[in-house]
Write a structure and sequence with these properties.
Chain lengths: ~325, ~325
């Protein structure tokens, strides 16, 4: 398979790069001055694209790679891949579900605890010597027993629910259709979900329908004591509305791992004590990165050996 | 009861102070410029002491207050109270168990997640603008890691229950094996530490458990191990802990308590693999009010000759 041209869209994992290099002809898009330059030289050799949450395979790119057979994403999210185009052209698409579910659910709970119990602010309070000076830290808010509203009860949403239950939280959710095999309270309308929970967690896929699913109305419904947690995609939330709600005290706090224009983060958030801001690290553990990379490689090998794909989406 | 003199040892909660003032004759120990004189002046009137994790009722204080009938602690920990002396003198002692169990257990998990996933470091990374120049490095997974708990009391069990939600195998050490649990028991803290990824201190502080986490235990926990302390600072040999962290012999630590609060070893301030909290285990609006109500409820019960709500002695 050393002649199979695999294009990687951007740096994502040194281990993955090495593994791909060992098996295929790896072409690194970022080593070229521009995509145009790359395509001029290599458009005919690319049979596979490995993308991620930053750069996938949009319609334009797919059009310009006539021999493209498979897009293997180093992510579970597919919002950076033109799935319709892939379907049209018979291009296979794989992602990395399951292996990252636990890590992302862990970060969601970590964000909830950090936001409610002000963990980062407390740590800063100690490190800057304020505790030693005799100041006492203000009281925080209890997590156990609060009601959690989950937008999207897929693998990740269910994993978050399972963890929150261990803290005695009540769980409710919104999704396109009610799930048959759960006792959690279902709301067919996300505003009703937001009105009836203390902590709203975004855990659904990003599609055209779910863009800005958390908008002004939802934020108002969540209210001045509510907390928003986003471990989905930045565009799930109307960021401008979120920022003004936080600055004006119309929302109590937020824990955000994703933003509309990563790595840009709205400046007004940087000075707030009631938010926790993470640089899209949901699945970024040593263990999970390796598992994700192995899955990408396994899918590509399966494809080029004409075996069934492990985690096909298209 | 407005004439009953109650001595509060230090500032701990505005609501509690306010309520004590309404119901009793409240003296604030920390505002007295000459504490010894104050005690001799009021020795004949003070019938109750309200203490907390910072200041309780040690032998000297008890001796100075011959009319003392009850010590009501705004804490579940009793290490600042001379329980033996109280027993001898027939002085009742109450604490605030149960109402704070959830908060402390929540914080233990919060510390585990914050240390392993570097949550505070990541938050700083974003705020200082570093994300524009590159992604944060990989951290280590929490789910599925083995959690070893020292002390399987109310708080230890609550931590175990939460960690199970993350599929963490649970093991524990305590003075004797608990009959009603499936968790794996180890007869020594060192053995426990050798066989877990994350070691949590959740037992009471007594002379026997002082420095229960010592050099040997830290070595057994090892360079990939993480120590979480939501008990009392003196549970851990702090200088040994600090040198282990600085030398990379311990993987990380999440600490809510220290040997000499509010002093925290400054050498820890530069480390990314530690999270340092100012003893906020029970520090939520909800729980502190509940704790205050337990203190008030116990005092009222005592002076109305009714059964105490949460007696220890």
């Amino acid at each position: 398979m050393e002649n199979v041209g695999v294009m990687m869209t951007c740096p994502m994992s040194a281990y993955l790069e090495q593994e791909l290099e060992n098996r295929f002809k790896l072409l690194k898009l970022w080593e070229f001055p521009s995509t145009t330059h790359f395509l001029t030289q290599h458009s005919d050799s690319v049979m596979a694209v490995v993308g991620n949450t930053k750069l996938g395979a949009d319609s334009e790119l797919i059009e310009l790679l006539p021999r493209l057979e498979i897009v293997a994403s180093y992510s579970v999210g597919l919002d950076k891949i033109d799935l319709n185009k892939c379907r049209e052209r018979g291009i296979r698409v794989t992602n990395t579900p399951d292996v990252l579910t636990d890590d992302v659910a862990d970060i969601a709970v970590g964000l909830i605890l950090a936001a409610l119990r002000k963990i980062c602010a407390c740590d800063g309070f100690v490190r800057t010597g304020l505790w030693r000076n005799g100041d006492s830290f203000e009281l925080a808010t209890k997590f156990s027993g609060k009601s959690i509203g989950i937008v999207g009860l897929g693998r990740i949403g269910s994993a978050i629910a399972k963890r929150a239950k261990a803290f005695g939280c009540t769980i409710s959710y919104h999704s396109r259709t009610k799930k048959q095999d759960t006792n959690y309270t279902y709301y067919s309308n996300i505003i009703d979900l937001a009105s009836n929970c203390d902590i709203l967690v975004v855990a659904c896929a990003l599609t055209e329908e779910t863009r800005h699913i958390v908008n002004r109305k939802v934020i108002d419904a969540l209210g001045p004591k509510g907390i928003l947690i986003n471990i989905g995609r930045g565009p799930h939330v109307d960021e401008l509305e979120l920022v003004s709600a936080l600055c004006e005290g119309r929302l109590a706090g937020a824990g955000l791992d994703v933003f509309e224009n990563e790595p840009e983060v709205p400046k007004s958030l940087l000075g707030l004590q009631n938010v926790v801001l993470l640089p899209h690290v949901g699945s970024d553990t040593i263990e999970t990165s390796k598992a994700m990379a192995d899955l990408v490689v396994a899918n590509l090998e399966a494809h080029f050996l004409k075996r069934p794909l492990l985690t096909p989406v298209v | 009861m407005e004439s009953i003199a109650v001595l509060m040892m230090c500032p701990m909660n505005n609501y509690l102070e306010h309520e004590l003032e309404k119901r009793f004759k409240l003296f604030r120990y920390w505002t007295q410029p000459h504490q010894r004189e104050f005690l001799s002046q009021h020795a004949e009137s003070i019938r109750a002491v309200v203490g907390n994790a910072a200041a309780g009722a040690e032998a000297d204080l008890i001796d100075a207050l011959p009319k003392l009938e009850i010590v009501s602690s705004f804490s579940v920990g009793l290490d600042k109270i001379d329980l033996i002396k109280c027993k001898e003198k027939g002085i009742r002692v109450t604490n605030t168990p149960d109402v704070l169990t959830d908060d402390v257990a929540d914080l233990a998990i919060g510390l585990m997640l914050s240390v392993l996933r570097r949550i505070c470091v990541c938050d700083k990374y974003v705020r200082k603008g570093a994300w524009k120049f590159g992604d944060f490095k990989l951290t280590t997974r929490f789910s599925g890691k083995t959690v070893g708990i020292i002390g399987l009391g109310r708080i230890g069990l609550a931590i175990a229950k939460r960690a199970e939600g993350f599929d963490c195998p649970i093991s524990y050490y305590s003075r004797s094996e608990k009959p009603n649990t499936n968790y794996r028991y180890y007869g020594s803290v060192t053995e426990l530490a050798s066989n877990c990824d994350i070691l949590v201190v959740a037992c009471a502080l007594t002379p026997e458990t002082t420095h229960i986490v010592n050099r040997e235990v830290i070595d057994a926990l090892g360079p990939k191990g993480v120590l979480i302390n939501i008990g009392r600072g003196p549970h851990v040999d702090e200088p040994e802990l600090v040198s282990a962290l600085l030398e990379g012999r311990l993987g990380g630590a999440g600490l809510d308590v220290f040997e000499n609060e509010p002093e925290v070893p400054e050498e820890l301030f530069g480390l990314d693999n530690v999270v340092l909290l100012p003893h906020v285990g029970s520090g939520t609006i909800e729980t502190r009010k509940d704790m205050a109500d337990v203190v008030l409820g116990n005092l009222e019960a005592h002076f109305a000759n009714k059964p105490l709500l949460t007696p220890v002695v």
